[in-house]
Amino acid sequence: MVFTxxxxxxxxxxxxxxxxxxxxxYAQFANDKIVNIIAGKFxxxxxxxxxxxxxxxxxxxxxxWDDLARYIYPWxxxxxxxxxxxxxGLNSGVCTCKAAAKILISRILSVPVV
Length: 114
Fold this sequence. Notes:
Blueprint lengths: L4 H6 L4 H13 L4 H10 L2 H10 L8 H11 L5 H7 L5 H20 L5
């Protein structure tokens, strides 16, 4: 299922439901190549520690996320951007990288992570 930007922005729910929607929206841009890029940047231990400290992964320096967001741009599915009506910027890139990191964390812990 594809979530559009309009659906994402209009979503109503409690804080946990909004966090789940945020993860789902940005995870749709985190294709295998992007997940592999994030896996190559951080060890499993680094990701788990960052998540356990702050579920938004904010203990990892924003400059690292910014640099990764710029780096992944060539692998972003441009057709998906058009289909979802998503405007791509540095913030979208950071959210996509963090979504990819949470995909990895979920795999490591074998539980859903948002």
